[in-house]
Amino acid sequence: MVIHTLDRYHLMIVCKYLRTVEDYLNIIFINSKYKEIPAMFHYNPISINKQSKKLFINIESQFIYSRYDDLINGMNNYIVWYGCGLKTVKYYKIYYSLRPIFKRLYLNYTQMKDFHKEQGDIIYYGFSEHIKSINVIDVSNFYGLSRECFKFNNITSVILGHHIREIPPFCFDRCGLKQLDLFLYN
Questions:
Q1: Phi/psi at 84 (nearest 5 deg)?
Q2: What are φ and ψ of residue 74, in 5° steps?
Q3: pLDDT tens, position by position, 120-142
Q4: From CA 123, how far away is CA 164, in angstroms rounded?
Q5: I want to staple 140 with a disulfide (CB 3.0 to 4.6 A). Which of 20, 98, 146, 161 is the partner?
Q6: Which of 105, 68, 64, 65 is nearest to 83 (CA)?
Q7: How many Å apart are CA 77 and CA 62, to the nearest integer?
Q8: What is the pLDDT of residues 45-62, one digit of tens each?
Q9: pLDDT in tens, 31-48
Q10: Domain spans of the chain?
């Protein structure tokens, strides 16, 4: 019987799926050659707290998985992975003077009109309330749509951009949509 072992690179790939600091410490204790694995990450694969801050010493981009994560000063990028609204965007800009990338930003229609002018900020979009009848909604700068985002809203036409790779279930459920423009997919 042949027993195969993982080298550091392949174990690093496995480590991307671990959830806690204790999991990383257990990997390090398995073999002394694995003690450098956390230093190989240039981002934090788990939430940052006092313990994990010491573990991942070479991160350049901080991933923020919850609003309770500690922020590390001097990072190249801050990427927010948890779903949040416009208040969170303002919070990071005002209190931390940061301009993070938001991967799951939810806005209502009024906020969307003012906010989607900033390229690259909007990832998921969903109505949080019913709106009045709208002829055309342009979501060409958006990177994705949320499930049921136009549901029960009276919309005549929607313009999609090339960033949107899929239309989630029930996205246009009972919205009265008459036209869906995909002309940006040249």
A1: -150, 170
A2: 85, 15
A3: 445 445 554 555 566 777 777 67
A4: 9
A5: 161
A6: 105
A7: 6
A8: 999 988 888 899 999 999
A9: 888 889 999 999 999 999
A10: 1-40, 48-121, 131-185
**Strands of 134-139's sheet in order across:** 134-139, 155-160, 179-181
Mean pLDDT value across the chain: 79
Query: What is the residue whose two structure tokens read 């001097």?
Result: 74
Angle at 49 between CA 43 and CA 50, to 5 degrees: 115
Q: How far from chain centre, in Å, is Cα 136?
A: 27
**Cα 33 to Cα 2, 28, 30, 173, 182, distances in angstroms:** 21, 8, 9, 54, 52
Amino acid identity, position 71 = L
Are 96 and 76 a contacting pair, CB within 8 Å? Answer: no
- Cα–Cα distance measured from residue 18 to residue 15, given in angstroms and rounded to the nearest whole number: 5
Angle at 125 between CA 115 and CA 59, to 5 degrees: 80
Instruction: Answer for the pair 158, 135: CB distance below 8 angstroms, yes or no.
Output: no
Other CB atoms within a 10 A radius of the CB of residue 146 amount to: 16
Range of weakest confidence among 14-18, 117-121, 146-150: 117-121
Cα–Cα distance measured from residue 118 to residue 124, given in angstroms and rounded to the nearest whole number? 14
- Token code pair at residue 161: 């951009």
The whole model's pTM is what? 0.68
